[in-house]
């Protein structure tokens, strides 16, 4: 069977190591929370082979690449409408899944952050994500307050998910090899249905704080709450990278209160 040619503009790097592929698939551990799994960017099906052997869930595949789609259609003729030729980022999950489902993939590195924000937007429907990312993106997802990797993505993901760094993957197990190291992480939905604050304001505060991460929060957030409306709490003297998710929730509530009182 003819091989699929990796396309640079789609960020394709096909995993060739079956042991690693099996390890990634076996990293789905919360299978009691869903009955369906969506693989993003299956390429030539190295993960799909292991996913389709699992009886705990039904496997769906989505690939924007028509050549991959046609290859997979020949490879798995019984998949029918569970094989989808579409853009994951443009997909309305509720058109396909009426209940919770997991997401897995060797994700294209050029859209990895967009994939994670898509997951966040649909967090009530996605209890688990297992995926391969560029190592530095994986490190950002799991970073702790105070580290240089800690940022917007860290806070948003950790607000709603337990984020685990599982293992590092070398470039040589891909075709073509990427110029970076890769890593597999797992996101497990936590018990937080809603944050204990104005969530829209929370997102604004986190983004503003990190967009000027070298500045103190007093300066970085002046566009949201002018300095003359900020109280004398110590938090204003800190930088965004020092604050945990819980700290950002408290700060959001403090801002809400100060805006109302002034």
Sketch the topology as an H/E string, one letter per element. Answer: EHEHEHEEHEHHEEEHHH
Q: What fold name goes in the CATH topology slot of the largest domain?
A: Rossmann fold
Q: In percent, how helical is the residue content? A: 25-40%
Q: What gyration radius follows from the Cα positions, in whole Å?
A: 20 Å
Main beta sheet strand tally, sense and closure = 7 strands, mixed
Spans of at least 5 consecutive residues with low confidence: none
The count of domains is 2
Number of helical runs?
Answer: 9
Classify the beta-strand content into a percent band. 15-25%
Strand line-up across the major sheet: 4-3-2-5-6-9-7
Global morphology: elongated
CATH architecture of the largest domain: 3-Layer(aba) Sandwich
Protein structure class: alpha/beta
Question: How many DSSP-defined strands?
Answer: 9
CATH superfamily of the largest domain: Vaccinia Virus protein VP39
Distance between the termini: 70 Å
Name the CATH class of the largest domain.
Alpha Beta
Mean pLDDT, rounded to whole units? 93
